[in-house]
């Protein structure tokens, strides 16, 4: 939806926000579990909900500012991963700064390794969620008896784009089976 407010647009936005909040919260919990070999000491347990709320809030705000919620998951690509890496790294730095600011007034201790582990898990889980969604939605059409087989002339950008479009289009009666190209460097390669 371009321009204006739509119920489906708002529903999509809040659904993505909720899914990301759950994923980021899980990243924080798993970070503590991994850091302490799945046996979190008692003194760190009360800190976990605070870390979850603060870190999750920072990442969600950064994701929003960096525009990840304006992107369509169906077309998730390296661009989304770059944004996830940027927001996760910046969130870890901001949370680290926030933590040391609070530490000046309250004697709390969070192991520094938590910041790096959370960042790594956050990248892996948020990036993985988009990858899994993309894989589930890709729905490449398999060769069917009614398909007319076709060779695509040119194995460059336009040819590969055409093949992807034909394989994604459920209504297409054409199924690409290969390329014909005059560039010998492209011989025996797959797209």
Question: What report would you give on this structure?
Answer:
It is a single chain. By secondary structure, the protein is mainly α. Helices cover 59% and strands 7% of the residues. The chain has 5 helices and 2 strands; from the N terminus they run ααααβαβ. The protein has helices at residues 7-35, 47-65, 78-103, 112-138, 157-168; strands spanning 148-153, 174-180. Strands 1-2 form a two-stranded parallel sheet. β1 (148-153), α5 (157-168) and β2 (174-180) form a beta-alpha-beta unit. α1 (7-35) packs across α4, α2 crosses α3 and α3 packs antiparallel against α4. The longest helix is centred in the N-terminal third of the chain and has 29 residues, at 7-35. The model is unreliable at 1-6 (pLDDT under 50).
Strand content: 5-15%
The number of helices is 5
Shape: elongated
Using DSSP, what is the number of strands?
2
Radius of gyration: 23 Å
Helix content: 55-70%
Can you summarize the main beta sheet? 2 strands, parallel
Class computed from helices, strands and strand pairing: mainly alpha
Element order: H for helix, E for strand: HHHHEHE
Compute the average pLDDT: 85
**Low-confidence segments:** 1-6
Distance between the termini: 32 Å
Query: What is the spatial order of strands in the main beta sheet?
Result: 1-2
